Amino acid sequence: MTTENDKLDQLGSAWEEFKKANDARLEAIEKKGFAPADYTEKLGKINSDLDSLGKSLAEVQLAAQRPNLGAKGERAEDIEHKQRLTQFLRKGDDTGLRDIERKAMNSTSDPDGGYLVTREMDMAIDRIVPVMSAMSRLARVVNIGSRSWQKRVKKSGMAMTWTTEGNTAGESTEPTYARVEIIVHPGEVEPWVYNETLEDADIDLAADLADEAAIGFAEGEGAAFISGNGVGRPFGITSGTPVANASYAWGSVGYLPSGKSAAFASVAPSDKLLDLQHGLKAQYRPGAVWLMSDATLGTVRQFKDASGAYYLWQPDTTAGFGGRLLGSPVEVDDNMPAIVANSFSMAYGNFQRAYTIVRRTGTSLIRDNVTAKGTTKFNFRRRLGGGITNYEAFKLMKFATS
Q: Which of 10, 35, 317, 354 is the most buried (most CB within 10 A)?
């Protein structure tokens, strides 16, 4: 079995091969004015291997952290809830299910429109979603039992003034506040199963359905946290109308340009990365991360400092498979836009302070064996929302000249 140390060794070796291949490509460009196709192809292959190794390492590390969902230590009502839900999944028999789920789940559960899934199924969904969506890991997550979550946010504070001896400076400018409200919206995932499969006792139907639901929720939520328009779904970090960072004001996200349309700057692209990093106020940089897609990271890996002495990106298992860029962890989320003209394809910020995900407690399940003959649909329903709660805690890079 491949261990974490094996993966670390493979990742280190692949990175050394990447540097050699990229150095050869850069040398060819300097001598010939272009890189031969085989050089570029080899570099692309190693880049892909780095991505695969990094993701594989992350899976090994996550597997070691997974909670034990076995029967040991389970409460009697949880065991009964699981048994009755399994009976409901396979045969549609819901006898006593409503009564036992009230005992098994807490008072903030939301059973309207179906039965609540077991704790294990809910935990499985909550575990898989962050694996597929970086924003689900990075943002602050709040669980509520109502339709919305509200918070007062301080937009500006008070400033100290200096005075001469015997004089006063008068009153300080009063702090200003904004009220942020995030409404939870319903989202559904509806896998279906052949009726014959339901009758087979050799599969863990609950686990299989939880996996299917988790993948569906992860894909939908992850996309919304990045680009959702806020109408019936979360408001994403690239939504709205970002403004040039020099004109930043509360309510808009500031951006810095890459220096070239649909690409990084042709000359000294690393300077633009430094601009983006230092465009974020110093108090937000501890805990700040880079956020980009796999394809964008593949390009960034090739960047060196202005002198050409060292690579800006470095592998770092403590930072996840994205490694580190200019000292900060890189988080890969393929929901981030691809690089095209005027796209906002890279972000840098402290997303624990910038973005909040609000989840309404409880995942409900409706069984439908009527709509489609020969199959049974399982409608999983959750309610969640998301929005920016601190506009100055992250910045975007716009792939344009200005």
A: 354
